[in-house]
Amino acid sequence: MPLERSRVIPVGWEAHHRPVAESAQTAWCRITRDGTGPGTWNESKNQYDPPPRETVYSQLSCRIQELSLPQRQQTGQQQVSSRDYRISVPITALAVLVGDVVEVTGGDTTLDPSLIGRPLVVTDIQRGSLTWQRDLIAIDNLG
Questions:
Q1: Exposed, middle or buried: residue 111 (CB in 10 Å: 0-12, 13-18, 19+)?
Q2: 2-32 core/surface letters (b: 16 or more CB in 10 A; e: else)
Q3: Rounded to whole angstroms, how far apart are CA atoms 143 and 88?
Q4: pLDDT tens track for 33-55
Q5: Cα–Cα dist 1/7, whole Å
Q6: Is beta strand 47-49 parallel, antiparallel or unpaired with respect to 71-75?
Q7: What distance in Å separates the CA atoms of residue 49 and residue 143, rounded to the nearest whole number?
């Protein structure tokens, strides 16, 4: 039984530790989403092109961690693989939505170069009452 008027986790604990979590975010990423409004007519293709993607964050610190082995599915005649990733960003990145696309743009020397430019589609945003960072779950469709 805890002592009366005591707390297991002190007030401000997560705010105090957020800089530690953010110091592990050694990559930089851009987060974009589908543009809004009408597309533009493309004369050479004889079709409408969608509106340009909107940039939500352009140079956001992040940490990328693969979560699973590739999952393989047969769609028609083609084998399709996908992987899930956890993308940790600062807790202040509130504008991210499911469906946004995260692309790694660079990072320190430990960054796996195969991550740069790879589009990762956000499928879930994990929330909690005691958080140090915002964790996004994303999928990489390898094709």
A1: middle
A2: eeeeeeeeeeeebeeebeebbeebebbbbbb
A3: 25
A4: 999 888 888 889 888 888 889 99
A5: 11
A6: unpaired
A7: 23
Each residue's pLDDT tens digit, 92-137: 999 999 999 999 999 987 888 989 999 999 999 999 988 899 999 9
Nearest residue to 134 (alpha-carbon basis) of 42, 31, 7, 38: 31
**What residue has token string 């991210």?**
96
- How much is the mean pLDDT over the chain? 88
In degrees and rounded to multiples of 5, residue 67 shows phi and psi of: -105, -25
Residue 74's pLDDT band, with cuts at 50, 70 and 90, is low
